[in-house]
Amino acid sequence: MRVLITGGATGLGQAIALKWAEKWAGKDEGLDICIADINQERGDETVNTLSAQGANAFYIHCDITSENDVQTLANTLETRWGGVDTVFNNAGVASGGSLLDESIEQWQWVFDINVLGMVRVSRA
């Protein structure tokens, strides 16, 4: 099974990766997990934990607001695995402010990551 998790270095994405590895342990088919995130330090930590659980995991830096980063991610997965079986479009942010208090630029940033980031990854 070949799994891509965006935003997989911390929080919910990391929890999904760890649970996937736990549930997959002992199965005949191997588990390949790609952690795509902007936080390399935490991504590497997550990969080390996944590897200790028996998953074949690797980290790749990917800013999902960047077409180039997303295309590099897609190319890497195609070269390394021949594609993916499952994608968790998990990367996301929250503004932390109210609708009226946050600037349009802040909302554009949130939209670019939470909506367009998912579109970029899914299309690649």
Question: In the CATH hierarchy, what is the superfamily?
Answer: NAD(P)-binding Rossmann-like Domain
Task: Decide which structural class fits the backbone.
Answer: alpha/beta
Q: CATH class, anyone?
A: Alpha Beta
Helix content: 40-55%
* Tally of individual domains: 1
How is the largest sheet built, in terms of strand order? 3-2-1-4
β-strand percent reads: 15-25%
User: What would you say the CATH architecture is?
Assistant: 3-Layer(aba) Sandwich
Mean pLDDT: 94
Task: Work out the radius of gyration.
Answer: 15 Å
Give the count of helical stretches: 4
Largest sheet: 4 strands, parallel
CATH overall fold name: Rossmann fold
The general outline is globular
Low-pLDDT residue spans = none
InterPro entries: NAD(P)-bd_dom_sf (IPR036291), SDR_fam (IPR002347)
Organism: Alteromonas australica
Pfam family, one: adh_short
Family: Belongs to the short-chain dehydrogenases/reductases (SDR) family.
Describe the secondary structure blueprint for this structure.
Blueprint: E1 2-6, H1 11-24, E2 32-37, H2 40-52, E3 56-61, H3 67-81, E4 86-88, H4 104-123
Parallel strand pairs: 1-2, 1-4, 2-3
Family: Belongs to the short-chain dehydrogenases/reductases (SDR) family.
Protein name: Short chain dehydrogenase
InterPro entries: NAD(P)-bd_dom_sf, SDR_fam
Tell me what the structure shows:
- The protein is of the alpha/beta class and 124 residues long.
- The chain has four helices and four strands.
- The protein has a four-stranded parallel sheet, with helices on both faces.
- The longest helix has 20 residues, at 104-123.
- Belongs to the short-chain dehydrogenases/reductases (SDR) family.
- This is Short chain dehydrogenase.
